[in-house]
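To close the chapter, one final illustration. This time we ask the reader to focus less on the individual chains and more on the assembly as a whole: which components sit near each other, and how the overall shape emerges from the parts.
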Amino acid sequence: MAYYQATKDPTTDIRERTYVPELLHGLAVTIRHFMRNLFFPRDTNTDVLNRTGTSQITTVSYPEEQVTYPPGYRGLHRLVPREDGKPRCVACYLCATICPAQCIHIEAGEYETTDASADSRVIEKYPTSFVIDELRCIVCGLCVEACPKDAIRMDTGRHTPSEYTRSGFVWDIPRLLEGPPVNHPSDPWLKRPGSERPAHAHLEKHARIGEGLVPLKLPRPAHPVRTEVTSGPVPVTKFLRD
Amino acid sequence: MSPKDNKPSSPPPPAAPPAKPAPKNPGFVTLNIDGKEVTAKPGTNLITAAKTVGADIPYYCWHHRLSIAANCRMCLVESSTSPKLVPACQTALQEGMSIRTDTERVAEVRRSVMEFLLLNHPVDCAICDQAGECKLEDYYQRLDHKPSRLEGGKILRNKRKVLGPLVVLDQERCVQCTRCVRFMDEVAKEPQLGMFARGSEEYIDVFPGQQLTSNYSGNVVDLCPVGALLNRDFRFRARSWFLSTVASVCTGCSRGCNTYVDFMGQDVYRYRPRENDAINQSWMCDQGRLSYKPLNLARVQAPSLGRADDRREVTAAEALLRATAQLKAMAGTAELAVLVSPSCSNEDLLAGLTFAKDALGVRHLYVGGRPDGAADALLMRADKNPNRKGLAWVSAGLGLSLEPFAALLKAVQAGTVKALYVLGAEVPVDEAEAARTLAQVEFIAVQATNVTPLTETADVVLPTATHVEDEGSFVQEDGVVQRVRRAFPPRGSTRGHWNWAVDIMREFGFPLTYESARDVFRELSPKVPELASFGWDSEAPPLKTQRGLQPLATGADGRPPGYREFGAPRVRGI
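The assembled structure is written out below.
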């Protein structure tokens, strides 16, 4: 196909002056795109969700059809639950602190020492109110980065649904809390029964390293100890980093 | 060999101790810290001396008002007088000694000490109220910055031991510096705290069967360098980095302890003591510490007219017109009385009393104010009014005599008082009973900060700003004049006492141009000889006193730091 030279002077160019060839050229481009979209997908890897029929057209009829998002995609927030159904959040305010849009509002409360739930006695602090104004949110994901407790994630892969009122975009704990419960080995309710001083049994545990009570973190994989016979002083064994 | 020779030779005289070097600066000790010469008074602590040349020696257990324990080992430095490292807090200054705080050896020891201190520390900064003002956090970032090498579990202790009405202890977070134990022993003189057990099992606790009930228990929370001792009143209410701070004075009693007011938006969250050698050293009492609550709760926010069921909120102009009309009719007669509270600041009193004298034409004032309460030997005083001395000075300067509150009640019962202008609604007797008696008065205009029975019976209520919402000054019981700083703009439609007084005077026809408490003090204080010499600007504490993160910097529009238009940071729409 002849490449159109933009530097050509249109006043002397016969093709520009008669107009008809350029008209046909433009129609050809349009029809080429139309035909390609109709029969050939431009990107053969496009994986469109909820598409019915055998159509492979590039155009996605959102919201009936949707494209899948990459794994790191930041969608709507969710609060991660614990085993007992409460959010993992401990109301440390780090997400509210880092949030550049100031869209997170938290109010903290304290579990009573007489609370029926054993977990609650370990955790002490919890959010009485945790709301995100999804209209103000700029979906930067800094709250997820800041959270020390893995309590807030943006892995839902969904957009904020539409609402008829502004107040509908303010998401509170019941709306935010979803997903399977998550435990981490460092969680306090896995380490102790309550916030008071535990019974005596565990106290010596840390001192009895090597009896199999405590898994040891070795500085490097075990390897045969080299023994060197020397005539000098006995070498001092040290942990040396490789 | 003669017997003479056989005589054992007398031992040589003991060598005289090496003569002390003559002091380089007589009367002072001259030493060398990090290669810089330091001249200090004998008895100066090495940590303080090092600070003067910019050597910031870290410490936990040392406090300049407590005895030296030297048990945290954080302040170890190299000294020319010892082959080993010495704790700086415990080392006396010697002439000519050389101190190094910046060597590799010192840095390594500091790192090791930090590692030991953090060995059993539960790093639960996420739920710790001290986070943001914690020395463990600061020194870990500055000196250690290494992951823990502890294998196995940490020692578990009681994480929520309620010590008393105001203090809760997390024994796991404690670094055993014993500052709190020494404070209760040496300053509060109520040794209720002690160290128990040995070694890594060591923990702080109250003695068996006791509680931390001292009136100075709040100070151990300030003293605690980590998050072990926490204030139950403040616990979990705000993160420290959201709070802004302004220097102020406690108005809980006539002692006038210097404070920091920590606030967010238009809410005060806590008081902390501010260093003042002459008045409160580094401490304040629990009663004063909790006296911030009326600044947030039960405030009169809008002007209102009418008694009981006729009460309706009105605009400031309407309330001013009504008060002016009623007071003008009675001005100059003996049927008009003025009740003044000694809780008002000097500026409020200067403007309010000038109004009473020049516009209302009264010659004597009735003194209200809070009733007397408990007192103790350390800081708390029985007189719960912060400015009784100021009231005496200002009224004497303006030529007004003071009458007790009982005289007002007697005059009201006798029916000789027909109108009452009240500057500060506190009364020294039972409030409800006093309000019932004063209700016989035909017209009452009240300037009040909080809702009281007296404001309920008043015909005109003018909402008034508190001492954290306006600049001002108070006179402490010993006659020390102290400035307070404005933390945030007044709530709702409140204005300072002085502002209302000036506004009514304008309605009376006085051509006043005062726009601020500063103007009031500048124009009116020359009449009061004791106040005339006070440097209102030069004596003011600096406005920005908190290091670190401020929620909002002072804007170009003159907003104070931390002020947000919609109150504390929150989401709109809820």
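Chain A touches chain B through 46 residues (CB under 8 Å). The two ends of chain A are 64 Å apart (CA to CA). With these observations in hand, you are ready for the problems at the end of the chapter.
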